[in-house]
Amino acid sequence: MIVNMNPEATEEQIQHVIDRIKECGFQAHVIRGAERTVIGAVGNSGRRGELEGLQVAPGVAALVPISQPFKLVGRELRSERTVVDVGGVKIGGPNWVVIAGPCSVESRAQLMEAARGVQAAGAHLLRGGAYKPRTSPYDFQGLGIEALEFLREAREETGLPIVTEVMGTEDVTLVSEYADMLQVGARNMQNFPLLRRLAKTDRPVLLKRGPSATVKEWLLAAEYLLSGGNANVVLCERGIKTFESELRNTLDLAAIALAKELSHLPVLADPSHGTGRRSVIPAMSRAAIAAGADGLMIEVHPCPERALSDGAQSLDVTAFARLMQDMERPMATRAGVLV
Ligand code: PEP
Ligand code: MN
């Protein structure tokens, strides 16, 4: 339920509504807009009948039910777009951002070369997996804490904030000490204990869409983070399973536009996992920005043929620099593309 306050409602009246919402067994989410304050009553164990009495409380303009199941992630309660600050880089503002780096951190030398290369090409954040969710248990699983140390060193040298995946609840405290943004991988999108744990951190979360998740399921996964207390969430479309066999996944461009329509959260696109094929990454990067993405995640390896994971979809530093130049020319801002 949304409680729209009158533009001239006093602080006391707003506080009264918050108190009543809590007394009725709901969480109160206060959104202070330029014109008026709006208060969301969210939860599943409250007494809705009693809440309806707020219609006649002083300072209340109207009560409006929230029709979407994702109450806090949707735009009914909050129409203003969310901008997430990751170590000083703003995701969801007027300029698109690029997270780039290797699929896996493989060695100090490999990471530093990638970090310097992506920084010189204009990337805004550095990625690199320390804990890798691999389909086969026999594949490279990541260097763990050693990789986190290399990532920290790369941030110190380049100044680029770090994005890295956290695979389980037991790793959240450790990975949070190193990372500026915690990635929830596609396979973990509906790992509800992990989402609940990440809701309690102060680190921004990058929530990848599951390979066979609907947009609604993806937004409901984000709802776990917001309802648990972490509003710094960025969505990332990374391709879904379809019948197409030439590509690893199908980058779902319509899902980017739809997620932006339904949610105030920023949305990134990952054309590396979204296609699995290096040659189409520049085209899909441009397409994703045109569809409304707030930025990209791109895998870059100093020598893709030697990569321990995802070499076929990794750009080398030169190809990444070319992609960045091509992206800059016709569309310096997202707004520039859309008009
Ligand atoms: C990754 O970003 O390296 C990764 C494993 O991505 P996804 O979870 O989308 O497969
Ligand atoms: Mn990868």
Structure description:
This protein has 2 domains: 2-64, Phospho-2-dehydro-3-deoxyheptonate aldolase, domain 1 (Alpha-Beta Plaits), CATH 3.30.70; 84-338, Aldolase class I (TIM Barrel, Alpha-Beta Barrel). Helix 7 (215-228) links the parallel strand 11 (205-208) and strand 12. The strands form 3 sheets. Strands 7-8-9-10-11-12-13-14 form an 8-stranded parallel beta barrel, surrounded by 6 helices. A 4-stranded antiparallel sheet has the order 2-3-1-4, with helices on one face. It has a two-stranded antiparallel sheet with strand order 5-6. The model has no long low-confidence stretch (mean pLDDT 95). The protein is an alpha/beta fold. The chain has helices at residues 11-23, 48-51, 108-121, 145-158, 172-178, 192-198, 215-228, 253-262, 271-275, 281-290, 317-328, 334-338; strands at 2-5, 27-32, 37-42, 60-64, 84-86, 89-91, 97-101, 125-127, 162-165, 181-184, 205-208, 233-237, 267-269, 295-299. It starts with a strand and ends with a helix. It is 34% helix and 18% strand. Helix 3 (108-121) packs parallel to helix 11 (317-328). The structure holds phosphoenolpyruvate (PEP) and manganese (II) ion (MN). Manganese (II) ion binds next to loops.
SSE series: EHEEHEEEEHEHEHEHEHEHEHHEHH
Low-confidence stretches: none
Query: What's the arrangement of strands in the largest beta sheet?
Result: 7-8-9-10-11-12-13-14
Beta-strand segment tally:
14
Straight-line N-to-C gap: 35 Å
Label the structural class.
Answer: alpha/beta
Helix content: 25-40%
Shape: elongated
Evaluate the radius of gyration.
21 Å
Number of helices: 12
Could you tell me which ligands this complex binds, including any ions or cofactors? phosphoenolpyruvate, manganese (II) ion
CATH superfamily of the largest domain: Aldolase class I
